[in-house]
Amino acid sequence: MKASIETNLIATLRVLTNKSKERSSDLLITYFSSIYQKAISVDQSNFRQFLNQFLTERREHYGLINDTIQNEVDTMLQSLAEKSIEFHIPFPSDTIDMIRPTQMLEILPNIVTELFIKRADPSEIMNKYNVPIEIPNVIRDAYNFVMPNPTRRDVQPSDEQWHQVRKLKTPSDFPEIGKFAANAYIYRV
Fold first, then answer.
1. Cα–Cα distances in Å, from 152 out to 86, 155, 161?
2. pLDDT band at 186; cut points 50, 70, 90
3. Which of these, 47, 92, 114, 150, could form a disulfide with 120 (CB 3.0-4.6 Å)?
4. How many whole angstroms separate alpha carbon 109 and alpha carbon 104?
């Protein structure tokens, strides 16, 4: 080891770091699995304690989880969310720092649809997509800033226009229902 450090310090440290990360990941998945097993096997009165412990540790070790064991932890988290619903215990949403960019890209069109087509309340969206309330609020506020006059026909579509937008097949349908429909089609709202 000493000779390796003396001859090629950077390569040696890279190997040691990778081994350390691998061992830490193994230990962490064992730790999460233990908390998870306890949580799903206890009654309703003790479930919240293990759920909170799981979520706290997930926040604490998010960087290592995200790099190595994300799929395993997400699977456990999904089961805990279902158990939480079964016990009528509110499941806390993730913090902004814990939402992966790929996750945001996947759910952003759904959030926009919920806000502007289905007219859902931001708190409903927060619960449905497990996101902080700030995300639907920022999207709504940004829309209101960009579109300050929602009474104009080409900005705020009628229910009939929304119905027509949902039926669009090709861009040639756009002239019938206006500019807003074209934007809705482009963004797959």
1. 45, 5, 13
2. very low
3. 114
4. 9
Specify the long-range contacts of residues 61-65, CB closer than 8 Å, at least 24 apart. 61/28, 62/97, 62/98, 64/21, 64/24, 64/25, 64/28, 65/28
- pLDDT digit string, tens, across residues 62-112: 888 988 898 999 999 999 999 999 999 988 877 788 888 888 888 899 999
Contacts of 53-62 with CB under 8 Å at 24 or more apart are 54/80, 55/92, 57/31, 57/32, 58/32, 58/98, 59/95, 59/98, 61/28, 62/97, 62/98
Answer whether 171's CB lies under 8 Å from 182's CB.
yes
Whether this prediction's pTM lies above 0.70 is answered by no
Which helix or strand (DSSP H or E) is residue 46 part of?
helix 44-60
Q: Is residue 176 within 8 Å of 164, Cβ to Cβ?
A: yes
Q: How confident is the model at residue 181 (pLDDT cuts 50, 70, 90)?
A: very low
170: number of CA atoms within 13 Å, CB side? 1
- Inform me whether the pLDDT recorded for 22 exceeds 70: yes
